[in-house]
Amino acid sequence: MIGDQILYEDNHLLAINKLPGQITQGDKTGDPSLADLVKEFLKERDNKPGNVFCGVIHRLDRPVSGVVLLAKTSKALSRMVEKVRTRDFEKHYWAVVKNAPPKSADILENWLIKVEERNKSYVVSSGRPNAKLARLEYHDIAVSDGGYHLLDINLHTGRHHQIRCQLANIGCPIKGDLKYGAPRSNDDGSISLHAHEVSFEHPVTHLPITIQAPCPSIEKMFNIQ
Fold it and tell me: Model confidence at 164, in pLDDT bands (50, 70, 90)?
């Protein structure tokens, strides 16, 4: 299965189109993580003895699909993690929402706080202790026959549940996202949020790289070719 999910690979990096329900890194559920599955795949495919290196550069929530970038070397991992930290790593998402956003395009800036025991983030005032600034830019790019809106989101910061929380705050909870106010779940337990594209400078070759992940369910809903 992992082989079919590979979007890009070279000697330093590997990009996977994560499926909803897959976890990027191990958690308390004990379910196999994407990183572990990739290690097993590379070990078998390349007939590698010993341990296989696979470093997680960034993560996606379990019900979210799309591009996850992994490092095949420690040098690539450290350089890419620094790019993510300094925001030299552009991430675009597709989000399907039922309600039209207040504006067709806007920049959202909110202060968010994560409540661990609920595994949920909330918009709070800027003076709240432990609150972190969250910033994203969205464009309403399509409307389906059923009245759903497709938002293209350029994520400027990487806060916990940021897109889910900020869109819910403007009255646009993501389709299927019960935690943030959607009226019903998706049949497969996913939410309609997809990491569609990442762009960055390659950590070794320094060439510009753009990787896109197809999402058949969203593409069909909005007649995207």
Answer: very high
